[in-house]
Amino acid sequence: MNWFNYYGLIIMAIIMIPNIIYAVKHKNSQNVYSNKTVEILEQIGRYGCFVFMIFNIPYTYFNFWFDYALTVYLSVNGSLCLAYLFFWVIFRNKNGKLKALSLSVIPSCIFLFSGAVSASIPLIVFSVVFSVCHIFISCKNAAFV
Q1: Is-contact 84 91, C-beta < 8 A?
Q2: Each residue of 56-88: pLDDT tens digit?
Q3: Could you give the count of Cα atoms lying within 13 Å of 56 in the half-sphere of its Cβ?
Q4: Which of 62, 78, 126, 145 could potentially form a cystine with 119 if both were Cys, beta carbons 3.0 to 4.6 Å apart?
Q5: In contact, 71 and 90? CB cutoff 8 Å
Q6: Can you say whether the dihedral through the CA atoms of 105, 108, 110, 116 is positive or negative?
Q7: Which residues pair with 4 in a beta bridge?
Q8: pLDDT tens profile 1-45
Q9: How far are the Cα atoms of 27, 70, 110 from residue 116, in angstroms, in the given order?
């Protein structure tokens, strides 16, 4: 993989499509749980993951570190993306902890797995920040519903 990760861009597009559709349909939707620090950290983690899923900055990633890593990367991320889309369809008109966990844990796994397999230090760091904050906020919001 060079500095631009086409696979990462496709994965990001797949993850973002249902989120964009949801945002268009629910323009006034906002978090019930409010903690500015956690929300800011979540956004920093989110955008860091977006950037480092797509761009490989030299000397911050070490590329795939085992044989057939690209195949594993594509297979696992493809399966996780399909699961994410599946849960979006299943839970599109529902709320609750299962929806919150499904739709926050799966992208977290995608980012963490991608960082680990590509040995991208920034992606691992941002994905940990994003995962902790995103899952926390999602569970707190589901508890209030």
Answers
A1: no
A2: 998 898 888 888 999 999 999 999 999 999 999
A3: 20
A4: 62
A5: no
A6: negative
A7: 55
A8: 688 999 999 999 999 999 999 889 888 777 788 899 999 999 999
A9: 35, 12, 10
